Amino acid sequence: MSDLAKRFATNPIISPRDVKPSREGFEVVCTFNPGAFEFNGRFGLVVRVAERRTTDNESVESLSISRNGEIEFQSFSLTDPKLKSLDSRSFIYNDTEYITTLSHFRLAWSSDGEKFSVEDSPILSGSSDNESFGIEDTRVTKIGSEYFLTYTGVSSNGYGVQMKSTTDWKTFEDFGTVLPPFNKDAVLFDEKINGKYQMLHRPTGSGLGGPYIWSSTSTDLFHWGHHVCVATTRPNMWDSARIGAGSAPIKTEAGWLEIYHGAEVVPTGHTYRLGALLLDLDDPTRVIARSQEPIMEPRSNYETDGFYGNVVFTNGQIVQGDEILLYYGAADTYTCGARFSIKEILNSLKS
């Protein structure tokens, strides 16, 4: 398989050991899947920080945020026959699924795009009923002077799409739940198309269909409709299990270039790789070309070994001419960086 990524020599650029826990008695286990942006001459990342309490090896815990903002814990013995472990990320007890960590967002800043300093306190944490199990994997899209964050809110209700906006990275306007469960991997285009805001997202359900990339439009950013399926998984290929959008599509003369993740079932779980879609400029529900082979796959040890290994997953990028500074989560543990050439990606696509 081909791999067009030129990985940073300094990878991982952010590790759990680099980040201060948000409270006493907690440990940071994952620092990954960052949104990316530029602000006041600096590079910024919105890093997902996953934490858990430091516990013994005889139990597993699930954490949630109560309505008054307090952290609540549920502990389960590893020897309880009602406990079924799915993987490092979640488990089932008495037919109910729980997650093993609680995620919030932390800002990280850099002057060169490679060496980042992570703030000591969360910039955003779960604050609504639909975020009681944490917030995850934000995409950042700048429209005009405003930055829009589309991210996953996790709760006992499921995974839904939340949205906030900011102009100063200090105060935020809350749009609430813009797409209900089960939905995630949502990202806005950075300009209106045919007079409407455009969003890619990934609904998921059981039965017919699958975890595919869809498009929707809005006139006010609150109400979304005109949903159209854009791309599906492909049997017996590297993206056969699920797919999802990455960062905001990049406008090129050839079309909108969207880097996306695809997963394939393997004996140890899933392998996550990256590919690209080329969408029509005037009708981004129409796919012009698509990667037959991934443009990036787990190769380095920090991508193959970790909290959940064999994963490269992106939801953050900064475009500088032909170069994409792509920030990605590796093995669900680290934040890493790589450079791509837009021209090379376009040349690799097949219609």
Automatic annotation (TrEMBL):
Protein name (database record): Unannotated protein
CDD domains in alphabetical order: GH130_Lin0857-like
UniProt keyword Glycoprotein, yes or no: no
Alphabetical list of Pfam families matching this protein: Glyco_hydro_130 (PF04041)
Origin species: freshwater metagenome
Molecular-function GO term, any one: glycosyltransferase activity
Taxonomic placement: unclassified sequences, metagenomes, ecological metagenomes
Gene3D superfamilies with a match to the protein in the record: Glycosyl hydrolase domain, family 43
Claim: Magnesium is one of the keywords in the record: no
Keywords carried by this UniProt record: Glycosyltransferase, Transferase
